[in-house]
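Rotation project, supervised by the postdoc (A.L.). Task for the rotation student: set up a whole-complex structure prediction and record inputs and outputs verbatim in this book. Inputs entered:
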Amino acid sequence: MSTQIDTEAIIAWDEVLEHFDPVLGLEVHVELGTNTKMFCGCATEFGAEPNTQVCPVCLGLPGALPVVNEKAVESAIRIGLALNCEIAQWCRFARKNYFYPDMPKNFQTSQYDEPIAFEGFLDVELDDGSTFRVEIERAHMEEDTGKSLHVGGSTGRIHGATHSLVDYNRAGIPLIEIVTKPLRGAGERAPEVARAYVATLRDLLKALDVSDVKMEQGSMRCDVNLSLMPKGTTTLGTRTETKNVNSLRSVERAVRYEMCRHGAVLRAGGSILQETRHWHEDTGMTTSGRPKSDADDYRYFPEPDLVPVAPSRETVEELRATLPEPPAQRRKRLQSDWGFSDLEMRDVLNAGLVDLIGQTVEAGATPAGARKWWSGEIARRANAEGTDVASYAAERSIVPAHVVELEGLVSSGRLNDSMARQAWEGVLDGEGTPTEVADARGLELVQDDGALEAAVDKVIEANADVAQKVRDGKVQAAGALIGQVMKEMRGQADAGRAREIILAKLTS
Amino acid sequence: MAELTRDDVAHLAGLARIDLSDAELDRMVGELGVILESVAVVQQSPIEGVEPMSHPMPIVNVTRPDVVRPSLGAEAALAGAPEADQQRFSVPRILDED
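Outputs recorded:
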């Protein structure tokens, strides 16, 4: 092992870019949303009581015979197809042997040199609108491991623990591991490429409806491989693998941090140790984990208890026909259908409002109205609670029909815009539907021209000088009178109708 | 085939978490060597044109529908565990003390 020269030192970002080109590799594990495990009929429900979703197969008891979950294979093929991969004509599972109590069998059933899907790509759109093609090496099927609770250490960490308590409910849940080829040429955009890739992959998997892809719950997990090449060379440097980087923001930060750390080691004349690194969300740093073992240490061999998977080409084509419209294409289509500007569409995407607006438009609202009501006050409230609009609305049973109804109240002339805002606030406060809130709060434009005319007369009399200006042809002066009339009517008038009456009285 | 070395045996013992004394290592190198030699006779089989196989039956695509079946229940699952606590399997310290 080479001498480590202060591995935790980092150098400035500009210095890294001046001397090195980064090479990125991303491994994403996705838990499939199947009802049952990969090789047995145990349920996969999140948060069940410990060791209640286990059986002889996933506990690795002697004599148990695993059988492959049909739905999991179909999901794996659909993921492969959506990633533009070839689908294997014939492939097998393999045992990955290791001794660690998170797998009671002492091996994980995975795929080794015969993945179900291989040689694909995913085009990723970056912030500046350009596209980066991420080449996919493979997507293979495997199973998740159990969850360990480390006891006796200071902070529940494995270091210093006296023993560990293991729950095997998660052991055997179907996983798809998606591995990119080494990505070169991203340069200073490497952190952004990494984040954009994971985000694009997440959207794609969501559209495929194969996983709930919740990074915070661990149903989608990302490992970041990174190495640096001195500028002007083409030899790959030694890589590190940063494990379990579990948010989009962390993916971006971890790439940047490792680039600066590798740069510091290499600039000081040291060499990078091939190892696993642990990402720490709180400090934004990585720390050394175990040295990476060679693949040979896992002593992979074909799983003798399972027969090969050989999807017929007809099956593959049938599954291809079930693929949804690719998310990027769908976004472009919706933007055009809805008539949103690039900026408006980006805001809508960043706020995660596409589905909500889609449902609201489908329910009968205008796209502009749907965007307006889902992005104003409700976004402010959701943000204050650290959640997104969709979750905020779902928790309070605020639905697209409410927006449709609110728009209806405005277009029918019952509410003006400021009243509609009050009604919407009432809906957000849990006071009921827009109509119920409007009824309860007495929100109603005065439709009676008599009352409006009386107010106009009163205002003209009190503002004779302004009225004279309007009579003399300065129509824009009417604005001040309209404001006065609205005040007189305590806001409960249609400002447009007030203007008509004022002009009729002063200019005809 | 390449001969099994003392380092190979020490490496495998490390992976399998089996603590072998020097004397045991020496003995295992010899004994495992004899076993490998005995099995090596299969390498003389005429396998020209024979596909490697990993399953005795020439069948593919044995699957089951994605339908939940009853699990064991925690009590039965933990019945064979040497130690259990908080409805979980209790296992010895995973990492050696530094």
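Student's summary: Chain A has a mean pLDDT of 91.
Supervisor addendum: Residues 436 and 479 of chain A are 32 Å apart (CA to CA).
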